[in-house]
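Late entry, evening session. Most of the bench is empty. Finally got around to the prediction I had been postponing all week. Sequence below, unchanged from the version circulated by S.P.
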Amino acid sequence: MTSDRAYHHGDLRRAVLTAALDVIRTEGPAALSLRDLARRAGVSHAAPAHHFKDRTGLLTAIAAEGYALFADALAAAPDLRERGVAYVRFARAHPAHFQVMFQPDLYRADDPDLLAAKARATTELRAGVADLPPTDDPRLTGVAAWSLAHGFATLLLSGNLDDAMGDRDPEEAFRLVGRLLFSPGDAPGR
């Protein structure tokens, strides 16, 4: 492999990101190696560093991309319950992004692209809670909603809900869990 080939690969950045997401999905973030990703992408071992500098830079790019996709998914949901469903749907569709996004020790938390994407996602999460009746502590209401969606998604992805779920569609199961815990008109914390 020559360095000339590495720079005429096409979209090397996307190829490395895609390969990294595959590794994370099947083996977890700890298994990532820029050298292995270069081999998978068919480029020189130094080529990925051109786009990401190092492993942390790659994981930062994955987290930023994940938060941007996540914000888009949440923005499309009309209310809090459906934002929770969108949360679960996102985790199922993007399990590698999901794993990285919520492990800030893996990436550069001060990266401008990451901060912008994370701010958008946070705004979308909070927008869903804004529709609820007022409570004594709106921030804790948001934490309750986030905990329910994140906990459900995490348990689902890790296989811990397999027995409880049976053949149920995860999105419908999440809607049912929401109805079981919060009857219509009730707000958490009231």
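Two things to note before I forget:
The mean pLDDT is 89.
The first helix runs from residue 3 to 7.
Will write this up properly tomorrow.
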